[in-house]
């Protein structure tokens, strides 16, 4: 299954300096969605995200399975040496950057909505506390 525009990630040239960066780069180059890969490996998407962001590391058997799915050598995934993903064409790179921008815009909108919701919750709680304090003052 190819990735939707919201699942493509573009990394800087330094993205292959970490295991997570290489996993992300290889997954992108292979055109495999996070959801599909997680399902094929029998892990959650959250686990995949933790691996790709270097918050945790997969077992060596899982790395070998990923290498096979991505068409890269296990050595490249682990160390950055050996056969990595094929080079993308300029058109594919341009498409990936456009998709990343779209994903970032969507995330920006989501964050804006979360900020508004949190602001309303804060205002409501502040109002409730003030009312409670006024009631206490009146009672004394």
Please tally the helical runs, counting DSSP H or I stretches of 4 or more residues.
6
| Overall pLDDT score | 82
Shape: elongated
- Give the proportion of residues in helices: 55-70%
Task: Determine the structural class based on helices, strands and strand pairing.
Answer: mainly alpha
**Sequence of secondary-structure elements:** HHHHHH
Rg computed from alpha carbons, rounded to a whole number of angstroms:
22 Å
* Main sheet characteristics: none
- Amino-to-carboxy terminus distance: 68 Å
| Parts with pLDDT < 50 across at least 5 consecutive residues | 1-14
Task: Give a verbal description of the structure.
It is a single chain. This protein has 140 residues and is mainly α. It has helices at residues 19-30, 34-41, 45-52, 60-70, 74-79, 90-139. Helix 1 (19-30) runs parallel beside helix 4 (60-70) and helix 2 (34-41) packs across helix 3.
Descriptive terms for the model:
single chain, 140 residues, mainly alpha, elongated, disordered N terminus
Question: Quick recap of the structure?
Answer:
This protein has 140 residues and is an all-alpha fold. It contains six helices and no strands.
Task: Draw up the topology in text.
Layout: H1 19-30, H2 34-41, H3 45-52, H4 60-70, H5 74-79, H6 90-139
């Amino acid at each position: 299954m190819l990735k939707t525009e919201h699942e493509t990630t573009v990394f800087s040239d330094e993205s292959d300096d970490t295991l997570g960066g290489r996993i992300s780069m290889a997954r992108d180059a292979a055109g495999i969605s996070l959801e599909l890969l997680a399902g094929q490996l029998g892990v959650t998407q959250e686990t995949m995200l933790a691996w790709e962001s270097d918050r945790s590391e997969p077992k060596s058997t899982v790395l070998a399975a990923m290498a096979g799915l991505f068409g890269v050598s296990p050595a490249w995934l682990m160390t950055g040496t050996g056969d990595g993903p094929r080079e993308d064409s300029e058109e594919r790179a341009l498409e990936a950057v456009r998709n990343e921008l779209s994903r970032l815009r969507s995330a920006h909108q989501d964050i804006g909505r979360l900020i508004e919701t949190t602001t309303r919750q804060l205002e409501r709680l502040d109002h409730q506390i003030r009312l409670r304090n006024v009631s206490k003052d009146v009672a004394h």
